[in-house]
Specification:
Layout (H helix, E strand, L loop, with lengths): L9 H7 L43 H10 L7 E3 L2 H9 L6 E6 L4 H12 L3 E6 L4 H7 L5 E5 L11 H10 L3 E5 L17 E5 L13 E5 L2 H14 L5 H11 L2 H19 L5 E5 L9 H7 L6 E6 L2 H11 L4 E2 L9 E4 L14 E5 L5 H13 L1
Parallel strand pairs: 2-3, 2-4, 4-5, 5-6, 10-11
Antiparallel strand pairs: 1-7, 6-7, 8-9, 9-12, 11-12
The structure holds pyridoxal-5'-phosphate.
The site of pyridoxal-5'-phosphate has 14 residues, from helix 3.
């Protein structure tokens, strides 16, 4: 790979990182290596490729690029899905150890933590991370602290610098799920976190056509530990998926700029509608997370959550009435998606029944607004 340091601006780095070494006739893009094994030698040397569950050259450009964007010089590790990356981070908790996890974390994350607790693999302390003193009190004796900001789908903005510092002081490993912010809007490792997790399925890959997870750390020993576990657990990404995610990353800056601009505009328009009882978007000056987001993020993201004054039925009717916007779960793609989150039984009860999450894509803002307006009118 090129020795390009991410000392260019992020909009440039997403384009230039993870390219093959430059020489006359060399390929501009990394190759997709479709192999399960590598030719061996009688006397294996350290660093030799052996088997494609251990290492695959198709993962490395993506792993290098995302690490640099997060401010780490240690290559990231890619996984078969965001949940595989989440599970890898939880595997750092020793058997019977204590994990502090917000009850309003992404439903897969809190679901996994509860399952591990029920099986006796760890002791789960659930917290409301917007109550900062109680949350910090729960860090006492914890092995791992999980943070996600903004949260999915409540869009609560957590005080990351304060929470990370408090958890580190108490000796916990701090994991931050940075999926909603992307490496272009927030860098938790730079704020002192030990581990960053991404569902690259979302904004990084950006086209709703691939599942992939990424774990980034700054500590080389911690990476070795995680690499050993990934090799044995086997939740590796396919070479084509890694290639697609890197291809998606190339346009992350322009996609996110556009989607974020549209989200900011739509959030203001939505906040004037009497059909809605609440609009959650950290970019709104009235949002409880606005000031914090302004301090720790370099943009407010492309996710909006709206709550309907008419309750669950009104929310359902809205989603069903959308014509351009697709009713679907997931987020971070070029197309705008809407979902009433509580339709999923696994969604935390803290999420209101009437809440619809909007993942804003890159369509023209006026076409999106026209669709939202006609659906609100129903
Ligand atoms: C914040 C967050 N983390 C993790 C995940 C899990 O990612 P994946 O669906 O790629 O397994 C998701 C999926 O929606 C998510 O929103």
């Amino acid at each position: 790979m090129t020795e390009h340091a991410a000392n260019t601006r992020p909009a440039t780095s997403v384009v230039s990182l993870g390219r093959p070494e430059r020489s006359t006739g060399s390929s501009l893009n990394p190759a997709i290596s479709l192999t399960s094994t590598y030719v061996g030698s009688a006397v294996p040397q350290s660093g030799d490729r052996v088997y494609a569950r251990f290492s695959n050259e198709s993962w490395e450009p993506l792993e290098e690029a995302v690490a640099r964007l997060e401010g780490s010089l240690v290559p990231a590790l890619s996984y078969a899905s965001g949940m595989a990356a989440v599970a890898a981070a939880f595997s750092l908790v020793p058997i019977g150890g204590v994990a502090v996890v917000p009850g309003t974390s992404y439903n897969g994350t809190i679901g996994l933590a509860r399952q591990l607790h029920a099986e006796g693999a760890l002791v789960l302390r659930e917290v409301d991370p917007t109550h900062i003193d109680e949350t910090i009190a729960a860090f006492e004796g914890a092995d791992l602290v999980w943070l996600e900001s903004p949260t999915n789908p409540l869009l609560d903005v957590l005080d990351l610098p304060t929470l990370i510092a408090a958890a580190k002081q108490r000796g916990a490993t701090v994991v931050v799920d940075n999926t909603f912010s992307t490496p272009l809007r927030q860098n938790p490792l730079v704020l002192g976190a030990d581990v960053v997790v991404h569902s690259a399925t979302k904004f990084i890959a950006g086209h709703s056509d691939v599942l992939l997870g990424i774990v980034v750390v700054t500590d080389a020993e911690l990476r070795e530990r995680l690499l050993g576990k990934r090799t044995l657990h086997g939740a590796i990404p396919g070479p084509f998926e890694a290639w697609l995610a890197l291809r998606g990353l190339r346009t992350l800056a322009v996609r996110l700029d556009r989607a974020e601009q549209t989200a900011a505009d739509l959030a203001v328009r939505l906040s004037k509608r009497t059909e809605l009882s609440r609009v959650r978007y950290p970019g709104l000056a009235t949002d409880p997370g606005h000031a914090l987001a302004g301090e720790q993020m370099s943009g407010f993201g492309a996710m909006i959550s709206i709550e309907f004054a008419g309750g669950e039925a009104a929310a359902e009717r809205f989603v069903e009435s959308l014509a351009l916007i697709t009713p679907a779960t997931s987020l971070g793609g070029v197309e705008t998606l809407a979902e009433r989150r509580r339709r999923q039984p696994s969604e935390p009860v803290e999420v209101p029944e009437s809440l619809v999450r909007l993942s804003i894509g890159i369509e023209h803002v006026e076409d999106l607004w026209a669709d939202i307006e006609q659906a609100l009118a129903r």
